[in-house]
TrEMBL record:
Name of the featured protein: Peptide ABC transporter ATP-binding protein
Keywords, ordered alphabetically: ATP-binding, Nucleotide-binding
GO molecular function per UniProt: ATP binding
The keyword ATP-binding is assigned to this record: yes
Amino acid sequence: MNETDARAPLSVTTEDLTLTVEGVDLDVRSTGDRLFVEVQTVRDAIRVARSLPDDADAGGFAALLTGTDLTAEIRVRGRTVALVGADARPGAVSRELGTAPAEVRLAGGFGAAVSGLSAVVSALRRRF
C-alpha cells in the first residue's frame, strides 16, 4: 500500500466551525468530501489572501486535499471564487494569476463584488 492509499478517502463533517485569520472570521461547513469556507466580504477575502506567507506551499495543501479526496470551496458572499483539492481544475486563468493548483472562478469573484456593491448602495439608500 502506498502513502496515498493510506490516507484516501477522508470525510469531514462540521456545521459550526469558525476559523479566524488576521481578525477575519471564516465559517466552515462540509458535506463529507467538500469543505465550504465562507468569507463575508471581498475585502476580507483579499485581507486573508494577503496575509498568507509568500512562500506558502499551496501545492502541498492542494496535494493533501487531493490525496485525501477532499475539495475546499472558497466562497465570498455566497459565490464560489476558488476550488482547491480533488475537484479543482485549474485553467488558463489560474495559471495566469499564478494560483494553480487552485481553480479560480472569475464569475464568482465578479458576482461577489457586484453583490458587495449592491449591499453598500442599499445601505446608503436606507441611511439617507
